[in-house]
């Protein structure tokens, strides 16, 4: 079950101590995804991979400073875990970064890639690409406030500002003035109007060579690539050109892929757990969360895709979807769903 920060050290919670790492955690990471990568999702993903860097959903500075909930909550087992912030006020960002460091986060990431209207109205996200100096000032303020890494996730351009020269100017300004040395680049530009966030993830064409060139032109910077990565083989190919790979929706919709990340991407000797064992190891967390008022469906929605392509996967998804949200639903619902996967008469997904 999740441990309180004051009672358990991150290393003993399942994360590999930095001194024992062959590769940095950002060699492979899971993208921050709004409404998806919440703390329940991250706990589940950590069961599959001990090495992968996990990101929170984007959290705005306003929510942290003025919100009534605890927007920095996470489980110790999630390490290494990064907080993605949304905002454009250097002082507010520095304040939130300091709070996050005090809570034990391993990295602070500034969102300069989300193109939604709501985010633009708040003056953060992809629209900040057009204000490199402001982004630099935000990063510098956070770097001055904390000792943990402060990074940027951005696009290759916005609207008609999509030349390679524009991207280089942005990176150079943020790296030099903001002293930022780690960037994750979504290899698509963003249209700030005319496309929905979903369309902005699919319509603008991917340009991986541009990100590769960025790494060649800025060799001292740590550059990770994001966008359209669906297999570990693709990730390995990218790693021949850049320092890290960030996987998004594929990792969420087909989480079983994460079970091979530690051995294939981080070259560890860790044993790969089978999917049934992964779910069974989740039971204590589920029981702990239910005892604290969490609804079962808030946890199980993240595990629906685990048995993709396995006989019984369709029944697994259906049973959880139909029963996890019922009043009083508990871990027995997951046990019943798991029995459907184990059944030799289960239909193929």
TrEMBL record:
FMN binds at residues 32-34, 84, 153, 186, 226-228, 248-249. InterPro entries: Aldolase_TIM (IPR013785), DUS-like_FMN-bd (IPR035587), DUS_fam (IPR001269), DusA (IPR004653), tRNA_hU_synthase_CS (IPR018517). Its EC number is 1.3.1.91. Keywords: Flavoprotein, FMN, NADP, Oxidoreductase, RNA-binding, tRNA processing, tRNA-binding. Residues 1-10 have a biased composition (Polar residues). Its cofactor is FMN. Residues 30-334 form the DUS-like FMN-binding domain. It catalyses: 5,6-dihydrouridine(20a) in tRNA + NADP(+) = uridine(20a) in tRNA + NADPH + H(+); 5,6-dihydrouridine(20) in tRNA + NAD(+) = uridine(20) in tRNA + NADH + H(+); 5,6-dihydrouridine(20) in tRNA + NADP(+) = uridine(20) in tRNA + NADPH + H(+); 5,6-dihydrouridine(20a) in tRNA + NAD(+) = uridine(20a) in tRNA + NADH + H(+). The record marks 111, 198, 201, 314, 317 as: Interacts with tRNA. Residues 1-20 are annotated as: Disordered. One of its GO terms (molecular function) is tRNA-dihydrouridine20 synthase activity. It is an enzyme of class 1 (oxidoreductase). It comes from the Bacteria. Pfam families: Dus. The active site is at residue 114. HAMAP family: DusA_subfam (MF_02041). Catalyzes the synthesis of 5,6-dihydrouridine (D), a modified base found in the D-loop of most tRNAs, via the reduction of the C5-C6 double bond in target uridines. Specifically modifies U20 and U20a in tRNAs. Belongs to the Dus family. DusA subfamily. Belongs to the dus family. This is tRNA-dihydrouridine(20/20a) synthase. It comes from Serratia aquatilis. The gene is dusA.
